[in-house]
Amino acid sequence: MVKQQKEEVDISASLSEVWRVLNDKERDVLRKNSSIQHFKRNELIYCEGDEPKDMMCLLKGKVKIFKEGVGGRGQIIRMIKPIQYFGYRAHFAQEDYLTNASAFEASTVCLIPMTVVTELLMGNPNLTMFFIRQLSIDLGVADERTVNLTQKHIRGRLAESLLFLKDSYGLEEDGATLSIYLAREDLANLSNMTTSNAIRTLSTFVSERIIALDGRKIKLIDEERLRKISKLG
After folding, report:
1. What is the spatial distance between Cα 7 and Cα 117, in angstroms, rounded to a whole number?
2. CA triplet 138, 2, 13: central angle to 5 degrees?
3. N or C: which end of the chain has fewer CB within 10 A?
């Protein structure tokens, strides 16, 4: 993995949620020990088996958390959006990373050494509660997605993924086009299906005038019907 260039920045605006629960001394510690790294599209941020040394916050771009499955088939576990923290669970569990993270597009990430995070957590119960809440939210989302990706039919899974991307990254200025462009393989990996099934189901949605496609751009034409398909599974 290419070593990224580091630079000093004022991170107060970027890490505003954490910033609010810190005192002046803790903020100074965080500021002095944080660094910024830039990742190119598809560049790995960390790999399965790596030792978790940093907590990360995505400042700009999009990041996918994924795991290689049987036969090299990937499964996207989570999609990270600005400003969202990631990469710290494994440290708290005292284990190496069980997943991989890569930049879905050119991305800027703030890294804070876990030794610094741990020290701050030991002295600030409000910060500790912040991360307990974040881990609890992530666990709830993971539980729901596990059920949906294993029990829903292909149409329901793909519909859910499209809505998940809309809720995560929003829409472009036209109010209909997803503000993220996925390769069909990535969409399939997010939806727990083969690429060929994803392509066929997308084509079906187009013929039913639920969505429209323009290369990697996906436009939601009938969001209400998409939600019904997702709900019915």
Report:
1. 19
2. 50
3. N
Residue 98 near residue 67 (C-beta atoms within 8 A) = yes
**Coil vs helix vs strand at 57:** strand
> DSSP character for 226?
H
pLDDT score of 33 more than 90:
yes
- Predicted local distance difference test score (pLDDT) of residue 14: 53
pLDDT band at 11 (very low <50, low <70, confident <90, very high): low
**CA angle, residues 80, 147, 140, in degrees to nearest 5:** 50
Could you tell me if 87 and 101 are in contact, meaning their C-beta atoms sit under 8 angstroms apart? yes
Q: Are 112 and 55 in contact (CB under 8 A)?
A: yes
- Say which DSSP state 108 is in: E
Query: Can you give the pLDDT at residue 3?
Result: 40
Model-level pTM? 0.82
Classify residue 5 by its DSSP letter.
Answer: P
What digits encode the pLDDT tens for the residues 54-88?
999 999 999 999 998 777 778 898 999 988 999 99
pLDDT (average), residues 202-213: 96
Question: Angle of helix 184-191 relative to helix 195-207, nearest 10 degrees?
Answer: 100
Q: Among the residues of the chain, which ranges form H helices?
A: 16-19, 24-33, 89-92, 114-123, 125-151, 154-169, 184-191, 195-207, 223-232
